[in-house]
Design goal:
Helix content: 55-70%
Mean pLDDT: 85
Structural class: alpha/beta
Number of strands: 5
Distance between the termini: 26 Å
Largest sheet: 5 strands, parallel
Length: 224
């Protein structure tokens, strides 16, 4: 039997690098200041609870797969350590797991990551209405194809490298759909239900139901 802890993550500014200010500005315009600030508080508490969970976990020989990690070994470790130094809670958790016996594994294809990053960068930095519209159409047109390719690569990496009787953890954006692509003998344990985290994002961006938004936010910060 193989076991995989599945963590549907919510990216924060420190995870987004140089495009973080543009994303934050654009998100404030879309969601409104009050809702976006509520979201950032929710995400902070969400990560605090994830960190507490892994502090208690036996990390000896734990195999670590990470959204966006296109290398293992020394290069992969350097990427993780640099992210932790930039105050990424996600990477800070991984650094702690490595110190306690965990091992990072290459998770993503660098070519696919570059393509998606460039499209997001173009979308976030578009200034005129025409530029925003053009970038958005291009991003939406390629988004599903790129996501499917990334999910297949990620699942393939886990299927091939997670061995019998090993336990792994996958930190992955909630908009991914990796679980159906995993091998049947891998037992998946979701720390938070991906469906609910995804629903939270939809309500954050598009929803008008404040009661439902608060209900989903409470689910994310619930430590039970």
């Amino acid at each position: 039997m193989r076991k995989l802890l599945y963590v549907p993550i919510i990216h924060v500014g420190s995870d987004l690098g140089s495009i973080a200010p543009d994303i934050d500005k654009r998100s404030t315009q879309i969601c409104g200041i009050e809702r976006w600030e509520r979201h950032k508080q929710t995400v902070s508490t969400f990560w605090d609870n994830i960190e507490k969970y892994f502090k208690k976990l036996n990390a000896d020989n734990l195999k670590i797969y990470q959204d966006g990690l296109m290398a293992d070994g020394e290069l992969g470790l350097k990427i993780i350590e640099e992210g932790a130094q930039k105050e990424s809670k996600n990477y800070r958790i991984i650094v702690d797991l490595i110190r306690r016996g965990g091992e990072i594994r290459k998770t993503e294809d660098i070519a696919l990551l570059k393509e998606e990053y460039n499209r997001i960068l173009k979308l976030s930095q578009s200034k005129s209405v025409w530029e925003r519209t053009s970038a958005y159409i291009g991003y939406r047109f390629h988004k599903d194809r790129l996501m499917m390719k990334r999910d297949k690569f990620i699942a393939g990496a886990i299927n091939q490298t997670l061995k019998e009787k090993e336990t792994g953890v996958l930190f992955i954006g909630a908009y991914h759909d990796v679980i159906p692509l995993l091998a049947e003998d891998i037992v998946v344990v979701e720390l938070k239900k991906t469906k609910k985290v995804s629903e939270y994002f939809k309500e954050l961006i598009f929803g008008k139901d404040e009661e439902r938004f608060e209900e989903l936010a409470e689910y994310l910060v619930d430590s039970d």
